[in-house]
Amino acid sequence: MTRWLITLAMCLWVGAIGRDRVDAWVDATVLPDLATEVSTQVLDRNGDLLRAYTVADGRWRLPVTPDAVDPAYLRMLIRFEDKRFFRHNGVDPVAMLRAAGQALWQGKFISGGSTLTMQVARLLEDGSTGRWAGKLRQIRVALALERILTKDQILTLYLNHAPFGGNIEGVRAASYAYFDRPPRLLTPGQAALLVALPQSPEARRPDRFPDTAAVARDRVLARLGSDALAEHIDQTRHRLPQIAPHLADRARVADPAASQLTLTVDRDLQRALEQLASDAVAGRSDNVQTAMIVADHQSGEILAHIGSSAYSADGRGGFIDLTQAVRSPGSTLKPLVYGLGFDRGLIHPETLIADRPTDFDGYAPQNFDGLYRGELRVRTALQQSLNIPAVSVTQALGPYHLMAALRRAGTDPQLPSGAPGLAVALGGVGISLQDLVQLYAGIANGGQAVDLRWRAQAPAHDHARRIMNRAAAWHLADILQNTPRPLGVKGTGIAFKTGTSYGHRDAWAIGFDGRHVVGVWMGQPDGTPVPGAFGGDLAAPVMFAAFARTKSVIDPIMPPPPDTLIIGTAELPAHLQYFGNTRALQPNLPAISFPPEGAILEGERLTLKVRDGTGPYVWLANGQPVARTHRNQVDIASPGVGFSSLTVIDAHGRSDTAHVRFQ
């Protein structure tokens, strides 16, 4: 009761000393720091919260403004705490006099006289409410705040600083912690509880003292005449959202000073696939882990990113972002091999190719099942993922050509040794799931490279990097969407490829339709073998399930470009009917001897050399003529920094191409 007598005396004092002296006293106020340290928050593409991080002192304080809060909560707050908030200048004399009178009449505290502005003053300075000096300081700061801030700004400070128990500050953090929802979606009962909590935040915590919380909430509802008294009070303190945690961590490391980071991820899809990932490894005793990425191959936006099945220390390496782990891709590079073969005119989907025991200068690969099929179409060889035909085409291309195409696609392949060999075609190179999805995004995008991106603010890259021509990319999509599905899986319209690395260490499945690409990796986080694991059995069903959660209708694969050759084997040109030693069948073909395929070059001038063929020779750089000569050597100006294709055409129209990079 004493403090309210003091308050009454203070009101009388203010009236006695005069307005001018009060104004001078208020104007001389040294205000606390008004900047609010808030939790770094990571948002999805629609502005929904994915993840947040505590501020320096370990508190959850999520930034919020009045327009992001349920209007019913704001009405309750004003009516219950400070109904003349929008009319007073920081101090409400009517409320103070009423509170003092009630205290004198009843002999105890009945209602408070502090305005929301005074409460903000106390919260900003973490000040006392019960002593003369503390109350006077609150009044002074409140009056000063009202002179420099709008009512919305003062309300915003309250919404961000009000205590809600434990390490929770601000209505947004409280709404997620106690109700697992944003404050714009509060029910009347939830809104009333959040109005009542800051008055006694520890004693009214619903997770610890639900009965006390219910009484306080009901008092608010009763005063406001609400009929939400029957609403159940959730007694759980929820963990704040931790959705797409691996990608959120990566975003925070990339921009540690940002208080808000927006990703391209779709929150609902992300949650659905996180559950799928958890289900995919549930019940296994071998610590098998999974990672997934879903991307829009037209825009390059990553829509879902699953670094592991659970972001926890669960024995499966849950804290490791396995989308970035460099692993052997198994057979998933075979489509690139054949696509490059189509692109260079070495093969056609209907070309016959031999699958028989072959020694490639000491390298003698075998098919996974140890069997051989003899002669068959390239289409069938890819659908059955046979090894010998893929290595044969790689030998004709040159492994450097394959590595150069991987880099044009925007990937960062890692070789176990310095020089690439034919084993690259069968997984003898390290690549991450994200890079593999990026490669397939380029194939799905008509052979045009796509740079995957997860920052919503980042502009789409517009690099004209072509992995292969559109017809070659369409042939791959046509072949892969007719690949036999795993038992019990339909997935009509989805082009896909599976892969299993040596020793059953990695199981892969990558698929795409006309709009999206989905990649799945499964294996041990430490790279140890998973006996009996195959991409088709382990990863492919998960990949098709991810597609089903991504969309209800499959987008059709792009139609064939006008220059696509769609004919049977017998109608093909003679050199495309059967794949073999092309140079033995057509001697004296021109071949670029310098620069070699995949070379990295420097300088403003470049020497081009060709062997065999018949002059005169025409040289093209990126499709544009740059030289015509009868000699087998010519100097040209550098085409410029980046990837370039160099082509020589001899007098009989025969050609050879090398892909290089200038730096």
From TrEMBL:
Biological process annotations from GO: peptidoglycan biosynthetic process; proteolysis
CC annotations in GO: outer membrane-bounded periplasmic space
Keyword Glycosyltransferase: yes
GO MF term list: carboxypeptidase activity; penicillin binding; peptidoglycan glycosyltransferase activity
Catalyzed reactions: [GlcNAc-(1->4)-Mur2Ac(oyl-L-Ala-gamma-D-Glu-L-Lys-D-Ala-D-Ala)](n)-di-trans,octa-cis-undecaprenyl diphosphate + beta-D-GlcNAc-(1->4)-Mur2Ac(oyl-L-Ala-gamma-D-Glu-L-Lys-D-Ala-D-Ala)-di-trans,octa-cis-undecaprenyl diphosphate = [GlcNAc-(1->4)-Mur2Ac(oyl-L-Ala-gamma-D-Glu-L-Lys-D-Ala-D-Ala)](n+1)-di-trans,octa-cis-undecaprenyl diphosphate + di-trans,octa-cis-undecaprenyl diphosphate + H(+)
InterPro entries: Beta-lactam/transpept-like, Glyco_trans_51, Glycosyltr_51/Transpeptidase, Lysozyme-like_dom_sf, PBP_1c, PBP_C, PBP_transglycosylase, PCN-bd_Tpept
Positions of the Penicillin-binding protein transpeptidase domain: 291-503
Protein family according to the UniProt entry: In the N-terminal section; belongs to the glycosyltransferase 51 family.
Protein source organism: Yoonia sediminilitoris
Record carries keyword Hydrolase: yes
Protein name, UniProt field: peptidoglycan glycosyltransferase
Stretches assigned to the Glycosyl transferase family domain: 56-224
All residue ranges annotated as the Penicillin-binding C-terminal domain in the record: 584-662
